[in-house]
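1st attempt posting a full record on here, be nice pls
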Amino acid sequence: MTDRYYLFPFYLLEFEQNVRNYVCHDIQDIQPGEKTKGGSSLYIKLKMMKKILKEVLGVDVAQNELVVTAGRMLDDLSIDLYAHKVFKNNESGFLALLDWTKKLSSDEFKVRFVMEATGVYHQKFAFYLYDRGREVTIVLPNKISNYIRTLEDKTITDKSCSAAIAQFGLERNLDQWHRPKKVFHVLQQLTRERDQIVSERVMVKNQIHAEKSEVEPNERSLQRFYERIKLLNRQEKEIKADLKILVNGDANLNGEIKRICSITGIGELTAIIVLAETNGFELIRNKKQLTGYAGLNVKEKQSGTSVKGKPRISKKGNRHLRKAMYLPALVAVRHDKNFAEIYLRIVSKHGIKMKALVAVQRKLLEMIYVIYNSKQEYQKEYSVLKESSALNLKDQHATLASS
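the predicted structure (as tokens):
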């Protein structure tokens, strides 16, 4: 025991000398003019002495380039944004980015790629990463912009945005993105194309009305407008035919759509749009998340007695879902007493018809989600059947108690 006590200072000196030799060896390897932060071997090795909990690559996606910032969270919960580079937004750039990531990362963890949903420019890169087994997270742009406002750095550039995305990914527990099934992706493309055609047809009809209202309408212009209407009608019919072929070619999808169409007011096109925009509810865990994704969730601003805003829907979600639920809500209110009761109750309470109609839209969307998960058809008299079954059960208990 005494010998070990006297040898303890020697062990400390030996450990200190080993650390000095390790660091001095790395310092000798650094060439004159070489940076001592970011890419230097000394900096990385000193950082690797701490345990790495998480590593994220924040990607700011533009049309022609990917601005990338690499960051890691260490065991003391500190965040280190240690590398930055720009790559082309094409397949050669994707390959170069993965090679660059391989040099920076360790085999002990898996790098998470976090990016914004910037129109369609991020899709190729996200699909490329997912096909190669990489972890991908796609965040709504408004979340990143709101997060950037909380940071001290008020300068907004592509580099600062990628750094903010990396920091956001390190601080938050984000869900992993999954590639949509091919059938739902194709259905989404077709339904959105049809929506654009319908909007364009409305615009052309307005132009025809304006031309006819002229003092001297131009017959040649009217002729061209009518030809455009015919073209748009033909294209819409072709899209509907393509949708029908896709649905009939998938027996499971066809069955799901038929069950959803049992809900009052929901037609085949509406069912297809809902399934296409939600990827078959693959990432939807509950009804609250679904209404939030559609932007039908209620937001309210209230503080003390001076600030009390009116409750409104957020509209921060998928506008295609909200648009698809409008006409079905009108039909459901007219032909289904369950939805009519909801509508009348809210109108009598608030006196605002649109607020009541939005509530019916939200209820219809939730009903589609329930029908899809339960694999059962919609029953108008479900509440009556539930009450009668409860009464029968009560009578049985009473009979057993008396006997």
